[in-house]
From TrEMBL:
<dbReference type="Pfam" id="PF03372">
    <property type="entry name" value="Exo_endo_phos"/>
</dbReference>
<keyword id="KW-0963">Cytoplasm</keyword>
<dbReference type="GO" id="GO:0007623">
    <property type="term" value="P:circadian rhythm"/>
</dbReference>
<dbReference type="GO" id="GO:0005737">
    <property type="term" value="C:cytoplasm"/>
</dbReference>
<dbReference type="InterPro" id="IPR034965">
    <property type="entry name" value="Deadenylase_nocturnin"/>
</dbReference>
<keyword id="KW-0479">Metal-binding</keyword>
<comment type="similarity">
    <text>Belongs to the CCR4/nocturin family.</text>
</comment>
<dbReference type="GO" id="GO:0004535">
    <property type="term" value="F:poly(A)-specific ribonuclease activity"/>
</dbReference>
<keyword id="KW-0090">Biological rhythms</keyword>
<keyword id="KW-0378">Hydrolase</keyword>
<dbReference type="InterPro" id="IPR050410">
    <property type="entry name" value="CCR4/nocturin_mRNA_transcr"/>
</dbReference>
<protein>
    <recommendedName>
        <fullName>Nocturnin</fullName>
    </recommendedName>
</protein>
<feature type="region of interest" description="Disordered">
    <location>
        <begin position="17"/>
        <end position="38"/>
    </location>
</feature>
<keyword id="KW-0460">Magnesium</keyword>
<dbReference type="InterPro" id="IPR005135">
    <property type="entry name" value="Endo/exonuclease/phosphatase"/>
</dbReference>
<feature type="compositionally biased region" description="Low complexity">
    <location>
        <begin position="19"/>
        <end position="34"/>
    </location>
</feature>
<dbReference type="GO" id="GO:0006139">
    <property type="term" value="P:nucleobase-containing compound metabolic process"/>
</dbReference>
Length: 386
């Protein structure tokens, strides 16, 4: 499969050198909507935003150099669907990933088999960037982002991405000493391929009561086809016992999306909301038998889960998208999904999951992999309008 090639540029070394020193652990104030992303940055980052585009191949090489001596990274392959049809003219590569908030990884999540050195930001930031640069998604949906302004926004802007960030109102990261601000959801898109139309940050409610969970909804237009695409990233309530809350949050999100799509479609009386391609990426903290999963499969938005395509019957989710060991025991389950509108989008390829042997006996995170959740990567294309 061809991967997209970004424009070459001479700024990768400056960008890399800005990443290399360990940042101070003092908390950063949450930037307001009026602050520019540059306000808390190293001068070399600021300079980067005004310079030429960064070459991702060079930055990937430098990430690998910074990680020299670590265990081998997971070798994952794409499963190609649709009988080997010719590659679509305008593929949409999407990555969904809960990257593990730095404050939570070091302070609250208690990964009992993970060496503390593997959780240091000085290592993890390169592992996270390596994963993104390896697959080079056109659309990137992240959860548990607590280094948006000082790392991800400037680095990805240098690679040609535009982004939006929505922090949790009461982020648990703020309870950790030396935190880097609240965690939240971030959505990035490749500006060379998509034109920005609109974006809204949502605070999800349950029975009309605001909760601590959020979503970012962004409307894009594909520059090559002219077709619109609505992309959503979210992170629902964690932990057993909160199934009812996840269901309510999922229903609230679906209601918002139906309203937004109807508004975008034009006249509400005859609007065909199912005509607008929709991608919903998230850590739902819900296994496939939960009510919130059923709500998405039965939604009038015509959604399906892309990762079911990996199974032989195309009806079964992967065995796991997260695998960790905490004091309460081992957790190996599926919580992360890429939902897509079946009427308007086609799944062309799906990145497989690493094996148990690759993951290793101490599970995730590890020196090989920076998060307790695995990234999901899919290639989509627009279906022809009938």
């Amino acid at each position: 499969m061809e991967t997209m090639v970004f424009p070459m540029g001479g700024g990768a070394t400056r960008l890399y050198s800005a990443l290399t020193p360990s940042h101070s652990s003092s908390p950063l104030p949450l930037p307001t909507s009026h602050q520019t992303a540059d306000t808390k940055l190293d001068p070399s980052f600021c300079q980067e935003q005004k310079g030429p585009p960064v070459c991702p191949v060079e930055l990937l090489r430098q990430c690998e150099e910074a990680l020299r001596g670590r265990p081998p990274r997971f070798h994952r392959k794409f499963t190609h669907l649709n009988g080997g049809d010719s590659a679509p003219s305008s593929p949409i590569r999407v990555m969904q990933w809960n990257i593990l908030a730095q404050a939570l990884g070091e302070g609250l999540d208690s990964f009992v088999q993970c060496p503390p050195e593997a959780l240091s930001w000085s290592r993890r930031k390169f592992l996270i960037l390596e994963e993104i640069l390896t697959y080079r998604p056109h659309i990137l949906c992240l959860q548990e982002v607590d280094h948006y302004y000082d790392t991800f926004q400037p680095v990805l802007a240098g690679l040609g991405y535009s982004g939006n960030f929505c922090p949790k109102p009461w982020s648990p990261c703020l309870d950790v000493e030396g935190n880097n601000g609240p965690d939240g959801c971030a959505l990035f898109f490749d500006e060379s391929r998509y034109e920005f139309l609109d974006s809204v940050n949502l605070r999800l409610s349950a029975m009309r009561i605001p909760t601590n969970q959020v979503a970012v909804v962004t409307m894009l237009r594909c520059r090559s086809t002219g077709r619109c695409l609505c992309v959503v990233v979210t992170h629902l309530k964690a932990r057993s016992g909160w199934e009812w809350l996840r269901s309510a949050q999922g229903s609230d999100l679906l209601r918002h999306l139906q309203s937004l799509l109807q508004k975008h479609a034009g006249d509400p009386a005859d609007a065909q909301i199912s005509d607008i391609p929709l991608l919903i990426c998230g850590d739902f903290n819900a296994i496939p038998t939960e009510e919130v999963y059923r709500r998405f499969t039965t939604s009038p938005l015509g959604l399906d889960s892309a990762y079911k395509k990996l199974s032989e019957d195309a009806l079964t989710e992967p065995e796991y998208t997260t695998w960790k060991i905490r004091p309460t025991g081992e957790c190996c389950t599926t919580l992360d999904y890429i939902w897509y509108s079946q009427n308007t989008l086609r799944v062309d390829a799906v990145l497989d999951m690493p094996t148990e042997e690759q993951i290793g006996p101490n599970r995730l995170p590890s020196f090989s992999y920076p998060s307790d959740h695995l990234s999901l990567v899919c290639d989509f294309s627009f279906k022809e309008k009938e």
